[in-house]
What we know:
The structure is a single chain. This protein has helices spanning about 5-20, 50-65, 130-135, 140-155, and strands at about 70-75, 80-85, 90-95, 100-110, 115-120, 125, 160-165, 165-175, 180-185, 195-200, 205-215, 230. It is α+β, with helices and mostly antiparallel strands and about 230 residues long. The chain has 2 domains: about 20-80 and about 140-215, no CATH class; about 90-135, no CATH class. The protein has a 6-stranded antiparallel beta sheet with strand order 1-11-10-9-8-7, with helices on one face. Strand 2 (about 80-85) and strand 3 (about 90-95) form a beta hairpin. Helix 1 packs parallel to helix 4 and helix 2 (about 50-65) runs antiparallel to helix 4. Mean pLDDT is about 75; it is low at about 1-50.
Amino acid sequence: MSSYEKTKKWALFFGLLLIAVIVSAGCIGEKAPEGGGVSATGEVTAPNAPQSAQLSNLLAKVESIPSVKYDRVKTLSDGNEYTSKIKGNKMRCQLVVEEEASDIFILDSDEEVAYRYAPEMNRAWEMDSNLARSMIGEPITETVRTFIEAYEEAGLQSIETETIGGKVCTILGMSVPGVAEKKMWIWLGYGLPIREEMTTPSGTSRTEMRNIELDPIPDSIFELPAGAEMVG
């Protein structure tokens, strides 16, 4: 078992242990019409399936996407943001601090390889992949799978929906009072987490997917530029 797989295993174990003490679940937004389901594009149509079937269907949808490109914008409590490009288990992230772009982080979870790249110097540093993952997040399929599995394990019930940018999303919410509350808006059309919110006593962070494209992405986006100088 790789170090990444071990990390995921213990992260999921801890998450399920935490969910075991959950005493409330939060959901917001507009309720779906009684007897209404959702089409592939997120439009309300056929009768609703049982919740377990709906969640499994959402997970199957996001896992079946061959390629997706989008800006992942995270607004932290301090107002900073970052944008990411993701293809399967490959990620590229750039933090924006006070409207100034910082270094670029590249992670390939399949190969367990990560880099920090400074564009202004055309220099790169190899990073520990787990450290990079803690900074820029898990691949999108892992994010959805972990949350849905924990949600089902806790036996929580939703389902309410909200439309964000024309995309109908189901809202899953879990909380440990006084510790943390997390909500995820999952697009019913493709299973993508259009919005995530985490609230703790220190503040709230929000992550949103914008400018979503389902066109093929060249692998070169996740490679260091030619001529980049490796340091260290």
